[in-house]
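User: Predict the structure for this protein chain, please.
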Amino acid sequence: MEALVPYASAAVTGFTVLVLARAAWHKASAYHETVGFAQGYGLVPAAWTYPIVRALTAAEILAIALMFLPATRASGGLLAAGLFAGYGVLMGLALRNGRSEIDCGCGGAPQVVSGLTLGRNALLSGLALGIALIPAGPVGVPGALVSLAAGLTFFAVYGVAEKLASHLPNIRRTA
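Assistant: Here is the predicted structure, written as structure tokens:
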């Protein structure tokens, strides 16, 4: 069983990189929309959201870059875990303040901030923490390809789950 740890670690790293890459791409390509989502949280003055969104985009890109290098992989995992946890805390604060009809602004399928998005971010944070804590080992070219395929599969399943979750508010209204 221990022999599979490097492969699982590589697959989880690939998945996490894809999640962060999509989030960073969304923030960069739909910057003003993302700023609007951030302003919807109502947690900081509106003018602050512009530099905050830029800093978060840079932090996501940095986490991705760090996870690619074996020497800095753990730091990248910690940064990613902190980002996912921090986003979860912000969502929790927005919910506590009664802002339950805002988009999370995470990229991908639109999702209203809810307990589900909090759980998703807790799971993502835990996976990223695993990247930081579980040592990576050599997997070779065939193992890297299998791990990459597994990471892509996880990402595809994640995308389907997000799409389904984006329909929950409509389902609840009609039920």
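Residues 140-166 form the longest helix (27 residues).
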